[in-house]
Amino acid sequence: MSNAAASPAAPVANRGAITACVILAVIMQALDTTIANVALPYIQGSVSASADQINWVLTSYIVAAAIMTPPSGFLAAKFGRKNVLLTAIAGFVVASVLCGIAQSLPQIVAFRLLQGLFGAALVPLSQGILLDIYTVEERGSAMALFGVSVMVGPVLGPVIGGWLTDNISWRWVFYINVPIGALAFAGIVIFVSETKRDALAKLDWFGFGMMSLFIAALQLFLDRGEQLDWFSSGEIMVEAIICAAAFYLLLVHTLTAEKSFVNPRLFLDRNFAVSMVFIFVVGVTYLASLALMTPYLQTLMGYPVITAGIVMGPRGIGTMLCMFIVGRLIGKVDTRWLLVFGLGLTAWAMYDMTGWTPDVSQWTIVSVGFIQGAGLGFLFVPLTTIAFSTLPAHMRGDGTGLYNLSRNIGSSVGISIVSALIVENTQRNHASIAAYVTPFNRAFDAAAAQSLSPLTAAGRASLNELITLQSTIIAYMDDFKLLMLMSLAVMPLALILRKPKAAPASTDHSAVME
């Protein structure tokens, strides 16, 4: 994704200031992937959205970022990297302010889309700048710093978002981008030099258009399917047809065009092709599980928003710590075993969560979250290493864009699917449990004294509330079980991967997190 120049012959002036500015831009973008999670119940109340609709606030941002990440390299070549980066920061900050002042669900979803469109270029272009200003020998340390900055967002996001929501307003989870963006913008204007423009740079607009149409139609299909009762709705039928048609045209164009948006030769590399499946599952398990935890903690368990943010924080800490550990193990331990170990930790964490009830202790939430984060930490670096270890150097730019696209699609699709399953399974479980609640069930004889008698209106209302709670808990268990099974299902694919001969010194471990 980044057109890194060769190692500079002379030291770059103000290198520390440049590093600080681009890291600020990365942190701002990474922060927004999780900072809104803990505020979702408050946003839901403010804009009068249903439980499945409010997740559009998350998925719209991810989808927009997924669509605009691949062409960021073309935009930088055509218009200059500094110009594109400044435009991205300014647009991201303006979109953040618009999110903060939004008064309805359509408004905030539209502004989150805008935020994702502008934010998509921040990470790859910032990464490109760091690769340009550090020598080959220094790039390992630079990319370690870059990787930490990307992971600071998921760690601090729930905590900062919880504090802002609890003490000021949920709108400040978006306004906080204004001072961060202003500092990054000013620093880049002052310290960063512009790159040469390539007037001959071209983009496969047809391929890009079909890919964008396919992703957008797929997301609408998944987000609105449960609400509109799937294929009984004309809208869902239209979205499904558009999605299938766009995918078919993209596939045909990719296989027949002289130079297509998606390079089909990438999939001839076994490691890269298998890693695309792995990173899709990582995207699902990472952000989909975060989307599940927020309503679980605040709605079912009654946690204040700041407490929910604090108990979710250790998940990111586990990821950061294990990324450092894995960085030292690469080259000493078979990368494929590190990958299997990471999937095992993730699956075990999900297995433990299938037994959770609202009475689960805070220590259990923190410890299991830390283990799940540790599993993801063991996945990030080995997966990036093995995905690009056998890929020719001239194909790595295209590979990085497609690789991150797969992760982003996994995240958005995962959130949509688990949200739809929560609604559907809650209704199904409610019907199953309610079938046993009749005046003829002798188990309710003793319950009559506890205002749970099905013979009275008050008793039926109390019973319905209790059944709904139990149905929702079971629905969450089913979702956690699905995520566990997905982690286990991809484990055998590790056997197909080729063992990399050696871990390249300049391997970009942070590519997976763009």
Automatic annotation (TrEMBL):
GO molecular function terms noted in the UniProt entry: transmembrane transporter activity
Magnesium keyword on record: no
Key words of the record: Cell membrane, Membrane, Transmembrane, Transmembrane helix, Transport
NCBIfam families: efflux_EmrB
Matching CDD domains: MFS_LmrB_MDR_like
Domain Major facilitator superfamily (MFS) profile, first and last residues per copy: 18-502
Keyword Cell membrane in annotation: yes
Pfam families: MFS_1 (PF07690)
Organism: Rhizobium mongolense USDA 1844
Superkingdom of origin organism: Bacteria
Location(s), subcellular: Cell membrane
Protein name as annotated: DHA2 family multidrug resistance protein
GO cellular component, one term: plasma membrane
Signal sequence annotation: none
Predominant cellular place of this UniProt entry's protein: membrane
Transmembrane segments: 12-31, 56-77, 84-103, 109-130, 142-160, 172-193, 205-222, 234-251, 272-293, 305-326, 333-351, 363-388, 480-497
Entry membrane topology: Multi-pass membrane protein
